[in-house]
Amino acid sequence: MGEQTDVDIDDFVCRHDNDIIATLNAAINKHRAVKYYFKCEVDFEREVSESDDLQHTTAQFYLPPVVSSAESLDIQKLSATLQNSVESFTSR
């Protein structure tokens, strides 16, 4: 399974890390302190073993809100936390 449109969380976050950091820094520069959180919405599909049908579901994963004024965002930790949430969801 797998399509060319499939996106890995690590790849997505790495491709957009500069935009994420720039957006956060712009908000901090304007407001001094900001409260932010991350949300990831993932569409899953799998083949049903007894037939050729596909099952679909969508899940949303959140990182708790953080108040930041000077601390830098750890993109690797962000990506790992989201990936762990997805793996936990799919292991059920």
Number of separate structural domains? 1
Biggest sheet: strand arrangement: 1-2
Low-confidence stretches: none
User: What's the overall average pLDDT, rounded?
Assistant: 85
Strand percent estimate: 25-35%
Annotation field: number of helices:
2
Anisotropy-based shape: elongated
N-end to C-end Cα span: 19 Å
Instruction: Specify the structural class.
Output: alpha+beta
Fraction in helix: 40-55%
Order of helices and strands: HEEH
Which sheet architecture does the biggest sheet show?
Answer: 2 strands, antiparallel
Q: What's the assembly state of these chains?
A: single chain
SS elements, strand count: 2
**Rg, Å, rounded:** 17 Å
Question: Can you characterise this structure?
Answer:
This protein has helices at 9-31, 75-90, and strands at 34-47, 54-68. Helix 1 packs across helix 2 (75-90). It is elongated, with a radius of gyration of 17 Å. It is α+β, with helices and mostly antiparallel strands. The mean pLDDT is 85. A two-stranded antiparallel sheet has the order 1-2. It has one domain.
